[in-house]
Sequence to fold (316 residues):
Amino acid sequence: MRAITYNSYGDIDKLQITELNSPKPGINDVIVKVIAISPNPVDLKKLEGGFKIITNVKKFPFIIGCDFSGEIIEVGKNVGAFKVGDKVFGMTDILFGGSGAEEIKVSQKYISLAPNNLELNYAAALPQVSNTSLLALRNIAKLRAGHKLLINGASGGVGSTALQIAKLYEADCVAITSSRNIDWIKDEFNPSKVIDYTKEDFTETDEKYDVVFDANGNRSYPEVEKILTANGIYVTTKNNVYTQIDFIKQFTKRKKARVVLSGKTSTSNLDLIRMWVEDGKLKPYIEKTFSLTEFKDAYQHLAKGRTRGKLVINME
Ligand SMILES: NC(=O)c1ccc[n+]([C@@H]2O[C@H](COP(=O)([O-])OP(=O)(O)OC[C@H]3O[C@@H](n4cnc5c(N)ncnc54)[C@H](OP(=O)(O)O)[C@@H]3O)[C@@H](O)[C@H]2O)c1
Fold:
């Protein structure tokens, strides 16, 4: 079977299509015939060796990707909730897995049935960004109706999903984006306010927010602290030494800074995401779909950091 692999860390040119043996399921795994994958920035960080302190324990080649959708073609003997023929979506392990292959092995813990009202290839765009938004807003920020929420990076994969989840929690949402995405954000998500970051710094204001979700991860707790309410919380997607220092520094305060870590999903989170999609309350916004042979174009597009919503690579 074909897979998008790399044999050493580096840039997108390290990626190639290779022939690998089809995987065999462990007792708790399913084998999925992959219909589509959706690139995420973390795929590139792993490709560049950003996690090599951990990933070095595994031998090359690595398969790129973690998000996927497809159809189950084999199940391990302890798999009860899924059967051959089920159409599913989910995430392989970010560090040691890889979804960019025609067939993948994945634990039954990280998949769910795909939404029945969405083309199966588009379901690949949901898992990581929805899981991240859910963990950030529901689990970490404990978002509630009436909360004043600011989402930075609102037009990206995470931001465009977080905007929809914020509406489900009935938060009063302010979106940060650049000029070219202002009308799109207003038309599609109707937040109470949209701020153009190229014209205005959202931290220079007297407004106070219960939650600031830095989906883009380019700001910091010290910059955002002054616009948080007394019990406000800053949640960022950026996990680095500075955000960890912010986390430690604010222990003495009621205001909080947290990093969302969405390395793994769960069937229950994916079930909720599927339910929201089937109820017409959540959808992936796909900027562009690529074929398998165009996989480098897809990752180059993602690497520019300007994607509106998500990208999909069809694996068939
Ligand atoms: N910690 C975790 O578990 C976790 C999980 C998922 C993602 N992440 C991280 O979260 C970040 C966002 O992920 P993503 O999938 O949403 O990425 P993405 O889809 O590639 O984000 C692209 C978007 O970012 C916006 N953007 C670029 N510069 C910006 C700026 N200075 N201010 C505000 N928005 C800006 C762009 O809008 P404009 O073109 O309008 O600028 C574009 O729409 C990445 O760094 C990713 O690695 C972390």
